[in-house]
Automatic annotation (TrEMBL):
SUPFAM superfamilies tied to this protein: Formate/glycerate dehydrogenase catalytic domain-like, NAD(P)-binding Rossmann-fold domains
Lineage, broadest ranks: Bacteria, Bacillati, Bacillota, Bacilli, Bacillales
EC number: 1.1.1.28
Gene3D superfamilies the UniProt entry points to: NAD(P)-binding Rossmann-like Domain
Keyword annotations of the record: Oxidoreductase
Protein's name in the database: D-lactate dehydrogenase
Name of a matching Pfam family: 2-Hacid_dh_C
Reaction(s) catalysed by this chain's protein: (R)-lactate + NAD(+) = pyruvate + NADH + H(+)
Gene Ontology terms, MF aspect: D-lactate dehydrogenase (NAD+) activity; glyoxylate reductase (NADPH) activity; hydroxypyruvate reductase [NAD(P)H] activity; NAD binding
Length: 318
């Protein structure tokens, strides 16, 4: 019987679906990833693996897993996987595009509104019993209505975010490797990276991580933004030079930032973002709705079953 390894606790119904035809080994933890040594040991005779972004699928792992045919990554991104080594070892890699688009766009919108209206600051004040009463500028934030929003990366998530802006009568700018017909059908305007930074009141990073986009948001980039502007990131943490962003917010070079992703996760109490009032920080929950996570798991399971049963993967990474 072919063996499948699942590196985190998932919906039991998905496991039962696999157990009908396969031996299934599950690391039954919610928060802690499977230790590296256990990962290598369990996968050395596995035919299929469901991985998380925290699992390093590198050359060592792939060459150690002699029977491996498919790795299904529970994410759209796959920067935890050595694609060249996977190709060399004839291992199919799949991801979960599209099923998390709307949920992640919702969170991006939530981050923008939360930062603009100082929601977390207001909540902390109230919960600490420090609300002293009303005053004209008490917790006064920034309107989104009528402003300019810049989107760095007009892919499916960027476009879903842009659709949600339609009721706010904002001007939408975007910067992308190529022109987006979907974005422009909603009135978005393609501009240079420099113009996106200079003109936007809110800058959303929703791009995939590439060599070109890594650390694109650095001290120079933040210096080109308005002092009243907010930076939002639901793409990848490595788009940002984190010390530069912390300095920009702390010094008032930009108004604030709202983030769901970080270069190295999870972050600790010593991270440069911790303790800065104008930073809204979430623990990488972009796709974290029950419906979406179940859909992602189901897609991973179906990808594994298709490949191991001799079929074609549903969502292969090219």
């Amino acid at each position: 019987m072919k063996k499948i390894v699942i590196t985190r606790k998932i919906n039991p119904n998905m496991i039962e679906k696999l157990k009908k035809d396969f031996e299934v080994v599950v690391w039954n933890e919610d928060e802690q990833p499977m230790p590296r040594e256990r990962f290598l040991e369990e996968t050395k005779d596995a035919h299929g693996v469901m991985t998380m972004l925290s699992d390093k699928v590198d050359r060592e792992m792939l060459e150690n897993a002699q029977n491996l045919k498919v790795v299904a990554n529970l994410a759209v991104g796959f920067d935890n996987i050595d694609l060249e080594a996977a190709r060399a070892n004839e291992v199919v890699i799949t991801n979960t595009p599209d099923v998390l688009t709307e949920t992640t766009a919702e969170l991006a919108f939530t981050l923008m509104l939360t930062a603009a209206r100082r929601v977390l600051e207001a909540n902390r004040e109230l919960m600490a019993g420090e609300w002293s009463g009303w005053s004209p500028y008490h917790m006064a934030g920034t309107d989104v209505f009528g402003k300019t929003v810049g989107i760095f990366g007009m892919g499916s998530i960027g476009a879903a975010f842009a659709r949600r802006l339609s009721g706010f009568r904002v001007k939408v700018l975007y910067h992308n490797r190529s022109r987006s017909e979907v974005g422009e059908s909603m009135g978005a305007e393609l501009v240079s990276f420099e113009d996106l930074l200079a003109e936007s009141d809110f800058v959303l990073c929703a791009a995939p991580l590439t060599g070109e986009t890594k650390h694109r948001f650095d001290k120079e980039a933040f210096s080109q933004m308005k002092e009243s502007a907010y930076f939002i990131n639901i793409g990848r943490g490595a788009h940002v030079v984190e010390d530069d962003l912390a300095e920009a917010v702390r010094n008032g070079d930009i108004k604030g930032a709202a983030l769901d992703v970080y270069e190295n996760e999870p972050i600790g109490r010593d991270h440069p973002f911790i303790g800065i009032d104008n930073m809204t920080l979430l623990p990488h929950i972009g796709s974290a709705s029950v419906d979406t996570r179940n859909n992602m798991m189901n897609l991973c399971v179906n990808n594994i079953m298709e490949v191991l049963n001799g079929g074609k993967p549903i969502t292969p990474v090219q």
